[in-house]
Design goal:
alpha+beta; FAD/NAD(P)-binding domain; globular; binds flavin-adenine dinucleotide
Length: 453
């Protein structure tokens, strides 16, 4: 039996994977490039958060971690849309009782690392993977502090080292037909902060994800346990269109221009963000990438997992959820094939690759939906019709967002196919004359029933 497993990267997915594998009796060594974040003080006022939803929670639940992680989550029941006229509209995410969770990336990672150690994994920090000797199954690490080299022999190796994975690069360099696709969108992002009010309360409704959709860009805000909100401005790096008026990070580069831009676009957010100009000027502007690659595995001894296998843009809030789901599926295959790692890896790749491709494409599509369509009356009417129909016929219709976010039993690739079929029906319904008036009629309901069957 293969016993010693080396995991490159103790991020969100590597840490969870180690819990799954420890529970199966393997000896786990996790190597992390960064220092131990549990021993460091967070830089003041900066907490980056993520939306954890049912796929991620199910994966945590399977190894008994969901309860512990839920303690550091804030439920978000829907989107609060901040319109340009100052009005706010609430759009529930799903049915009554369904919600996604805001969680601090740092706190989640720290907790997962501790849970990994409690389950028997050893984590080595400041160890950066620099090479892999595939013939001898040895991973080379360079210590970021001492610059010493360590060679780790392993029976099995996992690359869980994120979107810019060194393990993936080693795999690619020593593979004669490795497919690789990397795609940057023209938008970057910058994080800003909404502090608590003078009374120490949340400055906005805490149980919602706030969105200021502005067609070509958007600002979003997610709550943190310390009553701050982390805001993210998704904004074009530069204007690639013919429209001279189109704004971009490149154009907004002085205090005056920043103020003018925020006053024109997010006037209700300004009083909530006392330090926005300084944060805008000093916080980094980061890029957003989709990575697709193949194969994810090498015979019976190596696999990529999480962002290393499939990096997504964040607009469906699924990158981490998808990586956690990778761990759950892999574990189900270990249950099925026991120590036959060749079968485990081969089926893992066959199952997960189409699902990762599907959610990567859906995430790109959802950017348009979030920044543009959430403020479009026609789109909102379409959502109302879909929601009404889904309530009347829950066995026949589940909106795409619910399929992706609240239905972990449905594969991403099946959710995408179902979503495409439903979108086709809805585009026909929305073209009907007078749909604005008769959207609640029996005629529409019957027509939709006919179109489904
Ligand atoms: C702005 C933004 C918002 C997001 N929002 C959401 C969201 O709401 N919901 C969601 O589900 N997902 C979200 N994501 C995606 C999510 O962050 C990733 O999918 C998730 O972090 C992937 O986890 P991972 O462990 O695979 O990779 P990472 O979290 O990137 O962890 C990789 C680890 O490997 C380490 N490492 C890297 N190179 C080496 C090396 N050479 N040697 C050793 N260690 C190494 C890194 O230091 C890191 O600790 C968001 C992403 C972004 C950018």
């Amino acid at each position: 039996m293969k016993k010693d497993i080396t995991i490159v990267g103790a991020g969100l997915v590597g840490s969870l994977l180690s819990v799954y594998l420890s529970k199966r009796g393997y000896s786990i060594s996790l190597f992390e490039r960064r220092s131990d974040m549990r021993k460091e003080k967070l830089s003041a006022g900066r907490s980056i958060n993520l939306a954890l939803s049912d796929r991620g929670l199910l994966a945590l639940e399977k190894v008994g971690l969901a309860y512990s992680i839920k303690q550091i989550c804030i439920p978000m029941h829907g989107r609060c849309i901040h319109n340009t006229d100052g009005t706010i509209a609430f759009q529930p995410y799903g049915k009554e009782g369904q919600y996604i969770n805001s969680v601090s990336r740092g706190e989640l990672n720290k907790r997962l690392m501790s849970l990994a150690e409690e389950n028997g994994a050893n984590i080595y920090f400041n160890e950066k993977c620099t090479a892999i000797d595939w013939d001898n199954r040895k991973v080379v690490f360079e210590n970021e502090e001492t610059k010493n080299t360590k060679i780790q022999k392993a029976d099995l190796i996992f690359g869980a080292d994120g979107a810019f994975s060194a393990a993936r690069l080693q795999h690619q360099l020593h593979h004669h037909k490795f497919d690789y696709q990397q795609y940057y969108i023209d938008c970057g992002y910058k994080e800003l902060t909404i502090p608590p009010t003078a009374n120490g309360d949340f400055a906005l409704e805490p149980n919602a994800l706030h969105i200021w959709p502005r067609k070509y860009y958007m600002l979003i805000a997610l709550p943190n346990l310390d009553k701050t909100f982390t805001c993210t401005l998704f904004f074009p790096f530069e204007n690639l269109s013919d429209d001279e008026q189109r704004l971009s990070f490149k154009k907004i580069n002085t205090e005056e221009k920043i103020k003018k831009f925020f006053h024109a676009n997010f006037p209700d957010a300004i009083p909530l963000m006392p330090d926005y100009v300084n944060e805008f000027l000093t916080n980094p502007t980061s890029s957003l990438v989709t990575v697709k690659c193949f194969p994810w595995i090498r015979d019976d001894y190596f696999a990529l997992i999480g962002d290393a296998a499939h990096a997504l843009v964040p607009f469906y809030g699924q990158g981490m959820n998808c990586g956690f789901e990778d761990c759950r599926i892999l574990d189900e295959l270990i249950e099925k094939y026991a120590t036959d790692w060749s079968k485990v890896f081969s089926e893992y790749q066959t199952m997960r690759k189409p699902d990762a491709d599907a959610i990567a494409d859906l995430a790109i599509y959802n950017f348009t939906e979030m920044r543009d369509k959430t403020a479009d009356p026609k789109f909102l009417l379409q959502k109302k019709i879909e929601n009404r129909f889904a309530q009347l016929h829950p066995d026949k219709w589940l909106p795409l967002y619910s399929l992706v976010t609240f239905s972990p039993e449905i594969r991403y690739s099946d959710a995408m196919k179902k979503g495409e079929q439903q979108e086709k029906i809805m585009s026909e319904i929305m073209k009907m004359p007078g749909i604005e008036k008769k959207w609640e009629s029996e005629e529409i309901e019957k027509l939709m029933l006919r179109k489904i069957d």
